[in-house]
Write a structure and sequence with these properties.
392 residues, alpha/beta, Rossmann fold, 2 domains, 6-stranded parallel β-sheet, 14 strands, 18% strand, transferase, Glyco_trans_1, Glyco_trans_4-like_N, Glycosyltransferase_grp1
C-alpha cells in the first residue's frame, strides 16, 4: 500500500508529540507491512530548500520550507490568533505549491492520512486533483469558543472517508459537536508508545523526583500541580523535588507561582528536552503526575507506565481510559488541589503501593499501547477507506 501521511502541525510549531506519532506510525507500517509511506511535514526553520527530501527508517519525508514562517513569527503575537494562523499556513504552503504538485502528481498513492486540520485546507486543490480516499485522525479538540478552529475541523471531517480518534471520550465529543458524522465511520485507536533504544534494559531509582511532562499551559493543570505540591510539602518535607519537563506560554507564570509559594528551590523547570532525557527522568521518578483539566488522550501517562513509574492523573477525558484507579494508578478530580496533594502524599508514604501500581501499569503499557497494535488497527481503517471510496 502506498500512503501519503500529512503531519498536521502548523508551520510555527516545533516538533512535538504529533510529530513523533506520525514518525512512529509511518516507520511501523513500513516495518510490519512493507508499505511505502511518504510524510509531508515542515523542514527546520534554517532549511533553505523549497522541498527537502530525506529518508528515515524506510520512510520518505517531503519537508517543506518554512522560512516565511520564521519571519511571520516575528510579526504575529504568541499565541497566534486563529485567522492569522490560517492565512499564515496558506502562505506557508503556497511557497511550495508547484514543487508539491509535481511530487504528488508523479506518485501513485492509494490513500492520504491527514493528522488534524492545519495543512488540509491549504492543500485542498492538490488533494482534489489526486482524488483518492482520505483518512483523518483527530488528536485533540478545540476549547470553546473557537469557531474558526471548529470550522476547520468540520471541513476536514466532512471530506474524510474514515475518521480515527484517540479515545472513546474524544469520539463522544466529536459525535456531539459534529452531528453530521456517522458513528460507523469513526474508529477509536489509542496512541502507541515505545521505549527509546538507549533505554532498553535500564532500570532506575524510582525515588528521586516527582515529574510532570507536557506543554506548560493552564489547561494542563500545571498551576494545580505546583499548588498541590506545596500543600503536600508542608505536611512531609521528605518529598522529592518536583521536575517539570516541557515549555509553553504559561511557563513564566508557573515559575512565578513557585516563587510566591516559596518552593522555587524545590521545583525545577527543564524547558524542552529530548525524548531520551524525558524517559531518563521518568525511570528515576517516584511518581508522574498528569493533572490536565481536559485531555483527549494522555500520552505522558503511558510513557510513565512503560517506564515503571506510578501515575497520578486527572479523572478527565481519555486519561480515565488509560489509568484504572487503584489498579494502574490513582485518579483525582480535575482542579482539586487538596485531593491531588493527598494522592501525592499517599504514594510517597506507601512504597508498596507504588510498587503494586507500577507493576500493573507496565504490563498494560507493554501489552496494549504498542505500535504493532496501532499500525494493525490503522491499516484496517485504510482498507475500509479504500473500499468506501474517495474523500476530498
Amino acid at each position: 500500500m502506498e500512503i501519503l501521511m500529512i503531519e498536521g502541525n502548523p508551520f510555527w510549531v516545533e516538533p512535538n508529540g504529533l510529530t513523533k506519532h506520525v514518525e512512529d506510525l509511518s516507520s511501523q507500517l513500513v516495518k510490519q507491512y512493507g508499505d511505502s509511506v511518504t510524510v509531508l511535514s515542515a523542514a527546520d526553520f534554517d532549511d533553505q530548500e523549497k522541498i527537502h527530501i530525506i529518508w528515515k527508517n524506510g520512510v520518505r519525508y517531503f519537508l517543506m520550507n518554512r522560512t516565511i514562517g520564521k519571519h511571520l513569527l516575528n510579526d504575529f503575537p504568541n499565541p497566534m490568533p486563529p485567522m492569522c494562523a490560517w492565512v499564515s499556513n496558506n502562505l506557508f504552503v503556497a511557497t511550495c505549491v508547484r514543487e508539491l504538485n509535481d511530487l504528488l502528481r508523479d506518485s501513485n498513492f492509494d490513500l492520504i492520512h491527514v493528522h488534524d486540520y492545519f495543512l488540509l485546507n491549504a492543500l485542498e486543490l492538490i488533494l482534489k486533483k489526486i482524488n483518492i480516499p482520505v483518512v483523518a485522525t483527530v488528536h485533540a479538540i478545540n476549547d470553546f469558543p473557537n469557531h474558526f478552529g471548529e470550522g476547520m475541523r468540520n471541513y476536514m471531517l466532512r471530506n474524510a472517508t474514515n475518521v480515527i480518534v484517540v479515545s472513546e471520550w474524544l469520539r463522544d465529543v466529536v459525535l456531539e459537536r459534529f452531528q453530521f458524522m456517522h458513528p460507523e465511520v469513526i474508529q477509536v485507536i489509542a496512541n502507541g508508545v515505545s521505549m527509546p533504544d538507549e533505554m532498553q534494559n535500564i532500570s532506575g531509582n524510582h525515588n528521586n523526583y516527582i515529574t510532570f511532562s507536557g506543554r506548560l499551559e493552564y489547561k494542563k493543570g500545571v498551576d494545580i500541580l505546583i499548588n498541590a505540591y506545596a500543600t503536600a510539602l508542608e505536611k512531609d518535607e521528605t518529598l522529592p523535588d518536583l521536575v517539570i519537563m516541557g515549555d509553553g506560554t504559561g511557563r513564566r507564570n508557573f515559575v512565578k507561582i513557585a516563587q510566591e509559594l516559596w518552593i522555587s528551590h524545590r521545583v525545577h523547570f527543564t524547558g524542552m528536552i529530548s525524548n531520551l532525557d524525558v524517559h531518563q527522568n521518568l525511570i528515576n521518578s517516584a511518581m508522574h503526575v498528569v493533572p490536565s483539566l481536559a485531555e483527549p488522550f494522555g500520552i505522558t501517562a503511558i510513557e510513565s507506565m512503560l517506564d515503571g513509574t506510578p501515575v497520578i492523573a486527572s479523572n478527565s477525558g481519555g486519561l480515565k481510559e488509560i489509568v484504572e484507579d487503584e489498579k494502574t494508578g490513582l485518579l483525582v478530580s480535575p482542579g482539586d488541589v487538596d485531593m491531588l496533594a493527598s494522592a501525592i502524599l499517599r504514594l510517597w508514604q506507601h512504597p508498596e503501593l507504588r510498587k503494586k501500581l507500577a507493576g500493573a501499569s507496565i504490563e498494560k503499557a507493554r501489552n496494549v499501547y504498542t505500535w504493532e497494535n496501532v499500525s494493525a488497527f490503522t491499516r484496517n481503517v485504510y482498507t475500509q477507506a479504500i473500499a468506501n471510496g474517495n474523500g476530498c
